[in-house]
Amino acid sequence: MQNAKLRNFNFLNLQSAIYNLQSGFTLLEVMVAIVILGLGLTVVFELFSGGLKSVEISNDYSNAVILANKKMGELSIKEMLKAGKETGDFSEEDNYKWEVEIVPYGEGKEKMEIASPLARNDNPIKIYQVTVRVFWEKGLTEKDVKLTSLRTYMEKPLEEKTL
Questions:
Q1: Count of domains in the chain?
Q2: How far apart are CA 24 and CA 5, in angstroms?
Q3: Is 135 a member of any domain?
Q4: Which SS3 state, helix, strand or coil, does residue 53 take?
Q5: Selection from 85, 59, 82 nearest residue 151 by Cα
Q6: Is residue 159 included in any domain, yes or no?
Q7: Are the C-beta atoms of 55 and 63 separated by less than 8 Å?
Q8: pTM for this prediction
Q9: N or C: which terminus of the chain has fewer CB atoms within 10 Å of its end residue's CB?
Q10: 64-121, pLDDT tens digit by residue?
């Protein structure tokens, strides 16, 4: 009887030992876990990269708006506006360029839809549409920002000739 108990005991110990050997991870399970971890990290790095690109693009556009506003301010202190186009670049910024277009309002792309007393030809007050465009190259494409404003200008009346 003791022999039978000893055999059962050895048999149970053998099963327990085999079970303990199989309690770890298999190579396949480890490889799958590494692949899932790698894919997850790749997605996270792509998200960070996209965020950094968005910040850079936002910075470029913000800088362009500031420069266009600065150019518009320079135009606002001019005593006399002359219709036409001018181009140039900013000395403090390397890759930003500007373009200014001044047209009498109502003669450009936009037509005046309502009759205004300011639209008469004999009126000394003239309305100009001022468009400032700041553009820069980013990679192979050209990006730009446009600011448009209206400005009034009063022409000096012709002096009457005295006889």
A1: 1
A2: 30
A3: yes
A4: helix
A5: 82
A6: no
A7: no
A8: 0.63
A9: C
A10: 999 999 999 988 888 778 888 999 988 888 889 999 999 988 764 554 444 455 555 6
CA distances from 22 to 3, 14, 17 (A): 29, 13, 9
CATH of the domain at 127: 3.30.1300.30
The answer, yes or no, to whether residue 152 has pLDDT greater than 60, is: yes
pLDDT at 132: 95
Encoded tokens for 15: 């099963």
48 token code pair: 């960070």
109 Cβ neighbours under 8 A, 6+ residues apart: none
Amino acid present at 147: L
Tell me the per-residue pLDDT of 109-143, one tens digit each, with 9 for 90 and over. Answer: 554 444 455 555 667 788 889 999 999 988 889 99
Residue 12, CB-side half-sphere exposure with 13 Å CA sphere? 6
Task: Please report where in the chains the tokens 């730009």 appear, as a residue.
Answer: 144
Structure tokens at 160: 């009457």
Structure tokens at 17: 């030992």
Tell me the residue ranges of DSSP E strands in the chain.
Answer: 84-89, 96-104, 125-138, 141-154
